[in-house]
């Protein structure tokens, strides 16, 4: 009885072993290669349960990936046209599309494929960067560069049964030595541009200051000239009026001048004067307050003369100052506009003295 149970158990175990050793499962993320004595007999790419000859001595199954796989490359030093260097991070995605070719060319091992991809990918990136100038790798040409790298690496990997789906460049940075040189060059360019702008500003400031100084000198000179002319005209008119009054009544004019002299000389100023009472200065001082007799024979009044009209000068505002007239300076700004002297440099029109009245009023007689 015991022997029968042992035999039955052995048969069941053998049956289970045969069943499970002849069955294999392929899920949706895998592919299966069935080999018989090392020769490929079947390839399963669809998910499901499949059967083979029991045990692995005759038929063996190799499971390979059917997903998108990724290969990264980091800190790759590439040289662009002109000798500069970049450090690049990139990756590519691929899929095994021909399991048979993959088994024959790469023994079905991803490690073999990864080594091949890393070597070829680095060479392709160096080739793509080497065809471009320094700034092209940082411009809108990056998308074109990724397409070129994908197209260059595809033929090599197709020989291994691998399809390259996409190539992406993650980072493109300058190498430390190139970064330092680039920074110093950019800094020198900015400093030179700042110095140029500062020099242009100083030049424009000096030109504007010179224009303003010239305008100020011209305006002050013209105003000073007209002021002197007006002052001289007023003095001449005052002297003429005094002369006209003096010519009408000499006695009254002397009396008026004496009163004015008393008021100024005898004011409370603490001034001491030693004079004789009979001096000419005290001629009207001892008259007991009586006024001199009016002069009945007044002289013919002097007819007032028209005030001299100040001639308008057509000469420069700096005439007589030893400065020759010159063309006002102008300046062309960066935007193309012309900077010219402001309004106010023209010589102002001279101020004419008011015309004297046609006839001077007669001096009223002063009763004694």
Automatic annotation (TrEMBL):
Keywords: Hydrolase, Membrane, Protease, Transmembrane, Transmembrane helix. Gene3D superfamilies: Band 7 domain (3.30.479.30). Residues 296-368 are annotated as: Disordered. Belongs to the band 7/mec-2 family. HflC subfamily. GO terms for molecular function: peptidase activity. It is found in: Membrane. GO terms for cellular component: membrane. PANTHER family: MODULATOR OF FTSH PROTEASE HFLC. One of its GO terms (biological process) is proteolysis. Its main location: membrane. It is a single-pass membrane protein. InterPro entries: Band_7 (IPR001107), Band_7/SPFH_dom_sf (IPR036013), HflC (IPR010200). It comes from Devosia limi DSM 17137. Residues 21-186 form the Band domain. Residues 345-368 have a biased composition (Low complexity). CDD domains: SPFH_HflC. SMART domains: PHB (SM00244). This is Membrane protease subunit HflC. The chain crosses the membrane at residues 6-26.
């Amino acid at each position: 009885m015991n022997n029968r149970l042992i035999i039955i158990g052995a048969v069941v175990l053998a049956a289970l072993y045969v069943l499970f050793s002849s069955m294999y499962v392929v899920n949706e993320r895998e592919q299966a290669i069935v080999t018989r004595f090392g020769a490929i007999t079947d390839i399963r790419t669809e998910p499901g349960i499949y059967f083979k000859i029991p045990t692995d001595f005759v038929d063996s199954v190799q499971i390979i990936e059917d997903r998108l796989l990724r290969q990264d490359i980091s800190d790759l030093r590439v040289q662009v046209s002109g000798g500069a260097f970049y450090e690049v991070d990139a990756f590519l995605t691929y899929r095994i599309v021909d399991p048979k070719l993959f088994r024959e060319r790469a023994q079905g091992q991803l490690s073999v494929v990864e080594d091949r991809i890393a070597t070829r990918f680095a060479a392709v990136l160096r080739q793509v960067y080497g065809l471009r100038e320094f700034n092209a790798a940082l411009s809108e040409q990056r998308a074109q560069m990724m397409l070129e790298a994908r197209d260059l690496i595809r033929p090599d990997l197709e020989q291994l049964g691998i399809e390259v789906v996409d190539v992406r460049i993650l980072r493109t940075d300058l190498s430390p030595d190139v970064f330092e040189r680039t920074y110093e060059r950019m800094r020198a360019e900015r400093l030179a541009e700042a110095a140029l702008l500062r020099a242009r500003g100083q030049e424009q400031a000096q030109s504007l200051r010179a224009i303003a100084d010239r305008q100020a000198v011209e305006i002050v000179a013209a105003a000073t000239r007209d002021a002197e002319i007006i002052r001289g005209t007023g003095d001449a008119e005052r002297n003429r009026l005094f002369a006209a009054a003096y010519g009408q009544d000499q006695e009254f004019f002397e009396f008026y001048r004496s009163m004015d002299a008393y008021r100024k000389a005898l004011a409370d100023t603490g001034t001491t004067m030693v004079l004789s009472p009979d001096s000419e200065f005290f001629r009207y001082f001892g008259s007991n307050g009586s006024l001199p007799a009016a002069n009945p024979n007044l002289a013919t009044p002097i007819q007032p003369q028209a005030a001299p009209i100040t001639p308008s000068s057509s000469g420069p505002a700096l005439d007589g100052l030893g400065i020759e007239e010159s063309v006002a300076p102008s300046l062309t700004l960066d935007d193309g506009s012309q900077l010219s002297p402001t309004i106010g440099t023209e010589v102002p029109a001279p101020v004419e003295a008011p015309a004297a009245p046609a006839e001077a009023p007669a001096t009223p007689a002063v009763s004694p």
